[in-house]
Amino acid sequence: MSKPNLVEAVLSRDRAIVVAALAIIVVAAWAYILSGAGMGMSAFETSSLSMALGPSDEVPAASTRAMAAMATPVDWTFGYTLVMFFMWWVMMIAMMLPSAAPMILIYAKVDRSAKSRAGQAVGLLPTAAFTAGYLVMWALFSFLAAGLQWAFEGAGLLSPMMMNSTSLLFAGIILLFAGVYQLTPIKQACLKHCRGPIQFLSRHWRPGAFGAFAMGLHHGAYCLGCCWGLMAVLFFGGIMNLYWIVGLALIVLLEKVMPLGPGLGRVIGALLMLAGTGFVVKAAGWV
After folding, report:
1. Rounded Cα–Cα distance for residues 51 and 208 (Å)
2. Which residues contact 68 (CB under 8 A, 6 or more apart)?
3. Distances (CA, A) of 241 to 17, 97, 206, 233
4. Are 217 and 137 in contact (CB under 8 A)?
5. Which of 75, 280, 25 has its CA nearest to residue 175?
6. What contacts 160, CB < 8 A, 6 or more positions away?
7. What are the pLDDT digits (tens) for 142-199?
8. CA 39 → CA 30, 64, 266, distances in Å?
9. How many CB atoms within 10 Å of residue 125?
10. What's the pLDDT tens digit per position in 22-47?
11. Other residues' Cβ atoms within 10 Å of the Cβ of residue 159
């Protein structure tokens, strides 16, 4: 078999290659998070159901090592800031890339079809560029999230190592914000774009690798607009708490692919608002 034919045979299986590549990235991201994301403790040690349920007078059901780390102040050096940034970014990749996979696969198919009709060479570079643009948008979010984490820790609203809320009022405000945002028109508009990949591609199509990167950024912006309220909940029950990491990833996926996804999003919003109100009432001493 000649070399050109071999290349053509490989590219004809582009869908399988894209699926495999996305799977490898997601698995690697989850492995990094489970290992502790450079924190020195695994995600299992920083995860506790009692902490996931918010601040209380009860002692969290965490390991002795994790409990000691909760009270240890953190020096936000340049190196530590980089660790926090990559923790957020890899966590966003692990949580968000599965829900973006349908869009990426449809993009790859449309790009291949367009090039085949035009008699152009088919390759995977545009699909890689589209995915890179999507991930860069979440990198920008991760930079902001790490900055907020630093600010909240400095204000005493987050525990230094377990990274969960230490204030009833702060916990309530986070849940109320996330819940209200779930019901806003901008949330619903962004979710509609995320649930309609064909419509997105037909309206915003740009040729070439640079165009694909720009489209990935654009789609990432819609995805960010859809989900950033939910991501704020990580400040409530622990940024590295697996109960919330897995739970939010599942909610995001169901919102985007489930027929009743928008309705589910509204129900989640109502529940978050109800829980947030409870924390605010408790913080005010009314109960």
Report:
1. 47
2. none
3. 32, 19, 39, 11
4. yes
5. 280
6. 69, 70, 71, 72, 73, 74, 153
7. 999 999 999 999 998 998 877 889 999 999 999 999 999 999 999 999 999 999 989 9
8. 15, 16, 34
9. 11
10. 999 999 999 999 998 888 888 888 88
11. 20
Phi, psi (deg, nearest 5) at residue 165: -65, 140
Angle (CA) 121-123-126 rounded to 5° is: 115
Whether the pTM exceeds 0.90: the reply is no
Retrieve residue 270's tokens.
Answer: 């109502």
Question: By C-alpha distance, which of 186, 99, 92, 216 is closest to 146?
Answer: 92
Closest CA to 49 of 238, 235, 179, 177: 238
What do you get for the CA distance between the two ends of the chain, in Å? Answer: 77
Contact 272, 176 (CB under 8 A): yes
Q: Is 119 exposed, middle or buried (0-12, 13-18, 19+ CB in 10 A)?
A: exposed
Residue 165, strand partner residues: 158
Q: What is the DSSP string of the chain?
A: --HHHHHHHHHTTHHHHHHHHHHHHHHHHHHHHHTTTTSSS-TTTT--HHHHT---SSPP---HHHHHHHTS-----HHHHHHHHHHHHHHHHHHHHHHHHHHHHHHHHHHHHHHHHHTPPP-SHHHHHHHHHHHHHHHHHHHHHHHHHHHHHHTTSB-TTT--B--HHHHHHHHHHHHHHHTSHHHHHHHHHHH-HHHHHHHH---HHHHHHHHHHHHHHHHHHHHHHHHTTHHHH-TT-HHHHHHHHHHHHHHHHSTTHHHHHHHHHHHHHHHHHHHHHHHTT--
Cβ 83 vs Cβ 41: under 8 Å: no
